Amino acid sequence: MKKYISVRIVSAEPMKAQRPTGKYDKGADGMRIIYEDGIEKWCPIGPFAKTYHKLDTFNKKGMSFEFALALLKEGRKLRRPTWGKDYCELDGGRVKYHRRVGGVPITLHEGFGITDILATDWIIAEEG
């Protein structure tokens, strides 16, 4: 069997298990997860905590490029702390940078550098 990795944004809230599920009894602590396509499921609290991370948590401690790329694909604007108020977003499959040079706003289409790809300090621009 092959291995896969998934990165997606979901909505979630605390919820007790409504019925026995595998090794979990009815009433076990967990989370109600709603995926973007409307599918809902219950997930035990332990596996949920290992798999999902709150978006506002990332703004406090930063996130890896893998998470940042998933958010860019969702239409978010992201930046790194060293960029000041400059940020980037995806524009038709290309990276679009919004920068200020000498106080003048400019827009550039560039690729990510290796420093950005290896960084773990990415934050959401409109929230950070």
Description:
The chain is α+β, with helices and mostly antiparallel strands and 128 residues long. Helices cover 22% and strands 32% of the residues. It contains four helices and eight strands; from the N terminus they run E-E-E-H-H-H-E-E-E-E-H-E. It has helices spanning 45-51, 55-61, 65-73, 114-118; strands spanning 11-16, 29-34, 40-44, 78-79, 87-91, 94-101, 104-110, 123-124. The strands form three sheets. It has a three-stranded antiparallel β-sheet. The radius of gyration is 18 Å and the shape is elongated. It starts with 10 loop residues before the first strand and ends with a strand. The mean pLDDT is 87.
Question: What is the element layout, followed by pairings?
Answer:
Elements: E1 11-16, E2 29-34, E3 40-44, H1 45-51, H2 55-61, H3 65-73, E4 78-79, E5 87-91, E6 94-101, E7 104-110, H4 114-118, E8 123-124
Antiparallel strand pairs: 1-2, 2-3, 4-8, 5-6, 6-7
The overall strand count is: 8
Q: Which sequence of strands runs across the widest sheet? A: 1-2-3
Outline the biggest β-sheet: 3 strands, antiparallel
Helix fraction? 10-25%
Give the overall shape. elongated
Give the count of helical stretches.
4
* Rg calc: 18 Å
- Category by helix and strand content: alpha+beta
- DSSP strand (E) fraction? 25-35%
What is the quaternary state of this protein? single chain
Through-space gap between termini: 41 Å
User: H/E order of the elements?
Assistant: EEEHHHEEEEHE
Average pLDDT level: 87
